[in-house]
Amino acid sequence: QVQLVESGGGLVQAGGSLRLSCAASGRTFSYKAMGWFRQAPGNEREFAAAINWSGGTTYYADSVKGRFTISRDNAKNTVFLQMNSLKPEDTAVYYCAANSRTYYIASGRESDYDYWGRGTQVTVSS
Fold first, then answer.
1. Of these four, 13, 17, 34, 62, which has the most CB atoms within 10 Å of its CB?
2. Alpha carbon of 9 to those of 1, 82, 95, 123: distances in Å?
3. Could you give the CA distance from residue 83 to residue 126 in angstroms, rounded to a whole number?
């Protein structure tokens, strides 16, 4: 079993930055691909960024490409999402997810992820 706990959310002005962290329990973190998804009020959850088990492959949604950076520290069982040039439309609850089956790819498909955190709120004011 894997537990994921997100942190780092908050309120920021448009153009600002935030860094989200996701701490994972368990000794097999390095054999899991990780992803960040987000859900805005009234919308379905959508993919934001993903990273494979080694950190060698990343994948981004077009809406965040060039502004967000996903990274991981396997020694600390943590994955990060650096968010720059934030826009009001980035306002959402951000969820961390782990993919233990196809860990060698950075997937944007929600169905590939088998563990989920509870989310952290990010609010961007205009």
1. 34
2. 25, 11, 11, 8
3. 16
Tokens, residue 120? 């952290």
Tell me how far apart the alpha carbons of residues 50 and 52 are, in angstroms, rounded to a whole number: 7
* Digit-coded pLDDT (tens) for 81-107: 999 999 999 999 999 999 999 889 999
Q: How confident is the model at residue 26 (pLDDT cuts 50, 70, 90)?
A: confident
Letter for the amino acid at 100? S
Q: Which DSSP helix (H) or strand (E) runs through 19?
A: strand 18-24
CA distance 111 to 27: 23
